[in-house]
Design brief:
This protein has 448 residues and is mostly helical. The protein has one domain. Helix content is 74%, strand content 2%. Keywords: Membrane, Transmembrane, Transmembrane helix. GO terms for molecular function: gluconate transmembrane transporter activity.
């Protein structure tokens, strides 16, 4: 038990310092193995690598195809076309809602949240400029649309955090639809009204839109129209390909095809993503010269993502192999109340420790997934509830300050933790945790 706690402490501290989990996880696994009385070399070559390779074998095609899909949506400007059209429909006066909706549509359609950040940020700046909203709210606004309910709660989302539980609980991506819908509604409504409240509070303090430090801003035609009121504040270089923006409905087809193929036709996520990729290539055939580079970049980017998560799962495999794991399992499984509480605590704590929703879930379910499955079967519990709780719980404490997506979001938006992390934490950590507690309570009462 001491070795397990030390191993987790190493992951938490070093990940918070920004050290890569790719080599931190093996170090932490080595500590667990030594304290657990395992042979160090055997633990690495056997237990650790079995967990690492097993996860990569199962999920690498999905990571790779998902990254390629997202990159193609980005380079063909389809993601940008969707975001701009949503903003035009809702108008600059509803800038926060427009950014949230644009992010939500893209992530629910299968676009990586990292791609969404890059695609939506320029539009978000233009909308916030026109509405005169402080830019320190922009990271929290993007986080609400991309890091929360569309990632974990809405049934059928093709994001990896909703797909991993299917492997352990033999469920579908649309598992526990009512529970997921209630959780998503709580996150969306409370998150949106929090941001609106904060907008008013900042405005009352005299904190409104201030131009980014960059001296040049590249804008599309729609962004130019939104920013006319403040055009004298920044030097503008108009996008030379502004008139080549794809049609909104054609841009939506790949996203819709992925969701429909996965949830209605019940095809494999691999086939669903392939259909989406083929549609992008066909609908954007005139841009064929950019395809190879985009596919290469997407495939290369997926390698780092899968290795990071596989490293975390490998650590979980070593934890599962030491004698102290039996005591840890008994502690977690005997937490008073519904076993969903035990699962939620395990997943969200490890997601926070690793700074990764998929990594924390991978460790928890690799170690305890089978036990929860057997418990559900033995007690006649709804296994779909275990799927949905694991998914929602992974999107709670994962967005602590050392989370990679949070760091990327702050860098892209030009904000600091001091300026914007409070709002990020409220919409992507505190409110999702509230929604998790709520749906577990409702499930225990048989309401969802």
């Amino acid at each position: 038990m001491l070795g397990i706690l030390l191993g987790l402490t190493i992951i938490i501290v070093l990940a918070f310092w920004g050290w890569s989990i790719i080599w931190v996880a093996p170090i932490a696994a080595g500590v667990v193995a030594l304290f657990g009385g395992l042979d160090l070399l055997t633990a690495y070559t056997g237990d650790y690598m079995s967990g690492f390779v097993g996860f990569a074998k199962t999920w690498f095609p999905i990571f790779m195809l998902g990254a390629i899909f997202g990159k193609l949506m980005e380079v063909t400007s389809m993601a940008n076309a969707i975001a701009q059209t949503i903003s035009k429909w809702l108008g600059a006066k509803r800038a926060i809602l427009a950014v949230v909706v644009a992010c939500s549509i893209l992530t629910y359609g299968g676009v990586s949240l990292f791609v969404v950040v890059f695609a939506v940020y320029p539009l978000g700046v233009a909308l916030f400029r026109q509405a005169n909203i402080s830019r320190q709210l922009l990271p929290g606004t993007i986080a609400l649309g991309a890091f929360t309910y569309t990632m974990t709660a809405i049934p059928g989302t093709p994001q990896i955090q909703n797909l991993i539980p299917t492997h352990y609980f033999h469920t579908t991506p649309a598992a526990a639809p009512l529970m997921g819908a209630v959780s998503a509604l709580i996150m969306a409504v409370l998150g949106y009204y929090w941001l609106v409240y904060r907008e008013t509070a900042l405005r009352n303090k005299g904190l409104v839109f201030i131009e980014p430090e960059s001296t040049q801003t590249v804008r599309t035609e729609d962004e130019e129209n939104l920013a006319k009121a403040s055009s004298d504040q920044t030097k503008t270089v108009v996008n030379p390909i502004k008139n080549s923006r794809p049609n909104f409905w054609l841009s939506m087809l790949p996203l819709i095809s992925v969701v429909v193929a996965l949830n209605v036709v019940k095809l494999s996520i691999i086939i669903a993503l392939l259909i989406g990729i083929i549609l992008i290539l066909v609908l954007s055939a005139a841009q064929y010269k950019s395809f190879i580079k985009a596919i290469n970049e997407g495939a290369n980017g997926s390698v780092l993502a899968i290795v990071n998560t596989s490293a975390a799962v490998g650590f979980g495999s070593v934890v599962k192999a030491v004698p102290g794991f039996a005591a840890l399992s008994d502690f977690l499984l005997n937490i008073k109340g519904s076993p969903l509480i035990s699962e939620a605590v395990s997943v969200t704590a490890l997601a926070g420790a690793t700074g990764s929703a998929s990594g924390g879930m991978g460790i928890a379910l690799e170690s305890l997934g089978q036990k929860y499955y057997e418990l559900a079967m033995a007690q006649g519990l709804n296994i779909e509830h275990f799927h949905r709780v694991a998914s929602i719980a992974s999107g709670g404490l994962d967005t602590l300050p050392h989370n990679g997506a949070v760091l990327t979001l702050l860098v892209i938006t030009g904000m600091s933790h001091r300026q914007s992390y409070f709002d990020i934490a409220m919409v992507s950590l505190v409110i999702p945790t509230v929604s998790l507690i709520t749906v577990i309570g409702l499930a225990s009462l048989g309401i969802v």
